[in-house]
From TrEMBL:
Record-level Gene Ontology MF annotations: carbon-sulfur lyase activity; pyridoxal phosphate binding
Gene3D superfamilies for this protein: Aspartate Aminotransferase, domain 1 (3.90.1150.10), Type I PLP-dependent aspartate aminotransferase-like (Major domain) (3.40.640.10)
Upper lineage: Eukaryota, Viridiplantae, Streptophyta, Embryophyta, Tracheophyta
One of the GO biological process terms: transsulfuration
Protein name: Methionine gamma-lyase
Family assignment from sequence similarity: Belongs to the trans-sulfuration enzymes family.
SUPFAM superfamilies linked: PLP-dependent transferases
InterPro entries tied to this protein: Cys/Met-Metab_PyrdxlP-dep_enz, PyrdxlP-dep_Trfase, PyrdxlP-dep_Trfase_major, PyrdxlP-dep_Trfase_small
Keyword vocabulary terms for this entry: Pyridoxal phosphate
GTP-binding is among the record's keywords: no
Gene Ontology CC terms: cytoplasm
Amino acid sequence: MAETRSCEFGISAKKRAAAADGFEGDDDIFVAKKSMLPTLAVAPPSWESDPAASLASLRHEFGEHGGVNMSIEASATFTVMEPETMRRMFTGELGPDRDFFIYSRHFNPTVLNLGRQMAALEGTEAAYCTASGMAAISSVMLQLCSSDGHVVASATLYGGTHALLTHFLPRICNITTTFVDITDHEAVKNAIVQGRTNVLFFESMSNPTLTVANIPELSKLAHDKGAMVVVDNTFSPMVLSPARLGADVVVHSISKFISGGADVIAGAVCGPESLLNSMMDLHQGSLMLLGPTMNAKVAFELSERIPHLGLRMKEHCLRAMEYATRMKKMGQRVVYPGLEDHPQHHLLKSMANKGYGFGGLLCVDMELEEKATRLMHHLQNSSQFGLIAVSLGYYETLMSCSGSSTSSELNSEEKALAGISPGLVRMSIGYTGTLEQKWSQFERAISRMEVGSTLFNKN
């Protein structure tokens, strides 16, 4: 039999024996069931509503030699003990659920472990990790929509996603999108055409305007008309759990908060096991055939960071709330869902997982791009409050003027429809330094801006 290591966290570090490879013996563990294959990273059923509790309920993977951290399976291809085994693997009789692997574009043990963590985090049956967030989004859309397919999507989306839906999919696949104000439920309902619309797509918190979507109500509207609901939850891991609120599929750019280090590019698709398995189908699967494969070394890095994601998110959110409150008192035009005057404050409060706050991003609307540019210049170069850079979820505060950066794919009319002001500065709030230290740096930058404006007006 295979050697195992076990402890109170579960069983792991299974070493496949020759008898198992040859499919001999009577033990049920080696009986392949075609109905179960192919097998993805399936999270055990969890009754926990708190994402941290769900993650803690997962089996702990040990290293091959008993290390507290799992081993990295960096191989692209895998051996078998007998030639007959390979034939059975390709016919689907043997698969990853029995510790049989063919090729890492298909399945890799280290990447599958990260998938189990992502499924637990989002409360879905299964998850598959990809090379980028855009790979996750595009693979889902191509699997759920055929030629002449139809998508209804929020008018306010990340620029890359907007470009995918506006330009690429119509040109390549004849998949068209109707963009709507996601807060106008009547408009959403009217845009979804029963029998034609395949997907309702939106972000849980919109990029960059931080509009919060009513996930339960939108999910009901879509399901009543036979459409699938796909939610990008990149802005609010731990804070919101879209699948628990009614969404069918949750996508992530893991490069952001989940990574936390701004050093890897990665994504994930979290959803029903049946959908994820169809995406890995040898003949029709978008993940299998397009090959947006995550590197095992990246998967290992990320799997080591997820256990402290909850702690990091709480600090991101705590500081964002404090800074937003103080900025508002200072007279700045602040957009933050944690503030009482945010249009969806009470909605977010009703949907959010308790204890994680209202998100780690805030916006300061300077109205004019020139004023936004000066603010960011002083925040970075005069006071060291943050860094002028795109992306989010880093331990340092990152700032960008969205209209001319991450939303630059939208034309002027589309930006206006999305509510993106030319001077909107998006800030991903970090947690380095003390809160008071960083706040004093913000105040110093504002003071220098005001002095500069006074001198300019005198001249």
